[in-house]
Write a structure and sequence with these properties.
By secondary structure, this protein is mainly beta. It has two domains: 105 residues, Immunoglobulin-like, CATH 2.60.40.3080; 346 residues, TolB, C-terminal domain (Neuraminidase), CATH 2.120.10.30. A four-stranded antiparallel beta sheet has the order 1-24-23-22, with no helix packed on it. The chain has a four-stranded antiparallel beta sheet with strand order 2-3-4-5, with no helix packed on it. The protein is globular. 40% of the residues are buried.
């Protein structure tokens, strides 16, 4: 008992005297690694079972990329009849992959020019040949979806029930069509993989799943089946929405929340669903994905969204039901346009970067796929500069303690600034341990960590950001 008191006294004394030497960043510093560059604007990124990244380039290419070496192969150089206008949206857009009955299929959307010289969107299906490492057997799933020289969207997401969602913008030529159920522009479409209309869609004999959209360029689904979408506003009111079948999202009569008197009446009359978040000025919201893994422990059960303007990178923590955003954090990881994001099954994060113009009218050399990581800062006190322990926050008052040597006991005691004990945790032969603080009235805690060889480490950790 006397030895324990001496250890506690030593810890507190060290931390008070040397607290300026260490302050734990709750999120850690983000760092980036260039996977590959000098490519077409990467519109969408997907992870496949063979542990490769597949990427669509806006000019029509589909790449297969080794995420470690950066080596890439062009699986498809172009698609039939693709139309591309430099400096604007038309081109290759979203795609998704499904592996069913040992057959890998890719569904990709792009713009093409019809015989009457009008623009339209097409959804194409390809089969992946393992033998030739190529995409073969193209089939049109759905086409003749009217679009324009801007606001074509679009994203593609295969759902757990093997239907497919496809976002379609208003085309920027007649926004009123977003409110017309008989038109496919300004909608989210729900499609069976053979191109037919699901019988349980909200409108009879219609692909329309949601309506009243301007230009939604991000789409993801959480493990609990909540569909999130990002949508571009005009000069204000970019949105993050939850997409519910049959709901109206207001455009062009409503932007952002139903907070204007004329908007309020329209919202009431037209069953408009308000966004979860709005952004003014607009960051030009883009790709969005769900994240819940140990590589980003403080971002568990969160959405990660990239954007085309500062601050470029957003993290939204979700409630337990995943149907509401609790808080928002922003990061600057790259001073360039970030359009796409991919979270792999093992927790790694990749984003697609495009150069400073809109859609690739400049040289392609600055387009890239980046890996985003949390950089663990070195922990230091008066004894040593490189300790075998890493501390991160998993919630406002829960700490994750990792150690490189996992054998033996580890005793962790947390104290307030006044030396009051907040919690005590003892583990045996564990590499990582969660510490839940019993009291939450403090903005800073001191940790004393004693290993089985009687080595004692001391830390100061910020609790309130």
């Amino acid at each position: 008992m006397y030895l324990i008191r001496i250890i506690i006294y030593y810890c507190i004394l060290v931390l008070v005297l040397y607290s300026e030497l260490f302050s734990q960043n709750a999120d850690g510093d983000l760092e980036k690694r260039i996977v590959t560059e000098n490519m077409q604007v990467p519109w969408e990124i997907r992870w496949t079972d063979d542990n490769f990244l597949w990427v669509t380039g806006i000019e029509g290419a589909i790449y297969k990329i080794d995420p470690e070496s950066g080596n890439r192969k062009t699986l498809l150089a172009t698609v039939p009849d693709i139309i591309r206008y430099e400096g604007n949206e038309p081109g290759m857009h979203g795609f998704d992959i499904i592996n069913k009955n040992n057959q890998i299929s890719l569904f990709v959307a792009y713009t093409y020019l019809k015989s009457d010289n009008s623009l339209a969107l097409r959804l194409m299906r390809y089969t992946y040949s393992v033998q030739s490492d190529s995409l073969i057997d193209p089939k049109v799933v759905i086409d003749n979806i009217p679009t324009g020289y801007a606001h074509s969207g679009c994203r593609v997401r295969i759902m757990p029930d093997s239907t497919l969602l496809m976002t379609v913008g208003d085309g920027a030529f007649n926004p009123i069509l977003s409110q017309d159920i008989s038109s496919l522009t300004g909608k989210t479409l729900r499609i069976k993989l053979d191109g037919s209309i699901p019988k349980d869609n909200p409108f009879p004999s219609s692909y329309v799943w949601t309506w009243g959209h301007r230009n939604h360029q991000g789409l993801c689904v959480t493990p609990k089946g909540i569909v999130y979408s990002t949508e571009h506003g005009t000069q204000a009111n970019d949105e993050v929405n939850i997409l519910n079948l049959g709901r109206n999202y207001g455009w062009p009569y409503v932007e952002g929340y139903c907070d204007d008197p004329t908007e309020q009446q329209f919202c009431k009359d037209s069953n408009v669903k308000e966004p979860e978040r709005t952004f003014t000025p607009t960051p030009a919201v883009a790709g969005i994905e769900y994240l819940n893994n140990n590589l980003f422990p403080t971002w568990r059960n969160s959405l990660v969204m990239v954007s085309l303007k500062p601050p470029y990178f957003f993290v939204f923590s979700l409630n337990e039901q995943q149907d509401s955003i609790k808080e928002q954090r922003t990061f600057l990881v790259e001073q360039s346009r970030l359009r796409s994001i991919c979270i792999t099954p093992n927790g790694k994060m990749f984003v697609g970067k495009s150069q400073g113009d809109h859609y690739g009218s400049k040289n392609n050399k600055d387009n890239a796929i980046l890996e985003i990581k949390v950089k663990t800062a070195g922990i230091k006190d008066e004894n040593e500069l490189n300790k075998p322990i890493v501390i991160t926050k998993t919630s406002p008052h829960t700490l994750l303690i990792r150690r490189t040597q996992c054998s033996g006991n580890m005793d962790i005691t947390a104290y307030s600034l006044l030396g009051e004990e907040l919690s005590f945790t003892q583990t045996s032969n564990q590499c990582e341990t969660e510490v839940k603080l019993n009291k939450t009235q403090t903005s800073m805690v001191f940790l004393c960590i004693k290993l089985n060889n009687n080595t004692v480490y001391s830390y100061k950790v910020q609790i309130v950001d």
